[in-house]
Amino acid sequence: MRVIAGKYRSRPLRSLRGLDLRPTSDRLRETLFNVLAAGNPTALEGTVWLDLCAGTGAVGIEALSRGASEVYFVEFSTPAVNLIQRNLHSLGLETRFEILQEEVTRALPNLEAREIIADFIFLDPPYHMEETYQHTLQSLSHSPLANSNTVIVAEHEKRFDPGFEFGPLRRYRKL
Q1: Comparing C-alpha atoms, which of 19, 37, 21 is closest to residue 29?
Q2: Cα separation of 28 and 6, whole Å?
Q3: How far apart are CA 50 and CA 73, in angstroms?
Q4: Less Cβ crowding at N or C end of the chain, within 10 Å?
C-alpha cells in the first residue's frame, strides 16, 4: 500500500493483518481521487476532510498528500489509531490533522460542536457493520458538518447497498 499522488507520492503505508481492517486499495483510492479532482491537480488544496472509520488512514493521508488543509481521522480501534499515527509519522506529518479515537456516533457531535464544515467526508466502516452506514449517513443528512457542497463518499461491499437517499442526501454516483 502506498500514497498515490501529491507531495508523498509512492511513499509506503503500513497496514495490520486481519479482516477487520480492510484498507482501501491503491487502485480504488486512485480512481476516487481522480474523480474528485476531475483532472485538476490543485482541486483538493485547502479542503477539509473527515476520514470516518479511518483504519490505516490511507484516504486521509492521500488527501493531505494532495494538499488538504485539515483531515480529521475518526477511528475507535486502538491498534488502528496507533497505525494511523505511525503512517503519519513515517511521512513526517505533524500538523494539518487530528486523530479522534472514538466511535463515529460520538465523534460527529463533537466535531459539530467545534463548528467544523467538511468539504469531503469518507465513510468506510468494516463491512460487517452495515447499520453504521445507515446511522452515519442519516446523521450527516442533517449535520452542520456537511453543507450543500460537501461530497460524502461511502465505500461498501459490492453486494451491499447502503441506500439511495437520506433526507437531503442523495447518491449521485456509484463507482
Answers
A1: 37
A2: 16
A3: 6
A4: C
The predicted-structure confidence for 91-138, as pLDDT tens digits, reads as follows: 999 999 999 999 999 999 999 999 999 999 999 887 666 688 789 989
What is the distance in angstroms between the CA of the first residue and the CA of the last residue of the chain?
Answer: 20
Residue found under cell 511521512: 91
C-alpha span between 86 and 61 (Å, rounded): 12
Q: How do the residues of the chain divide into helix, strand and coil, expressed in percent and rounded to 5?
A: 30, 20, 50
167: cell is 433526507
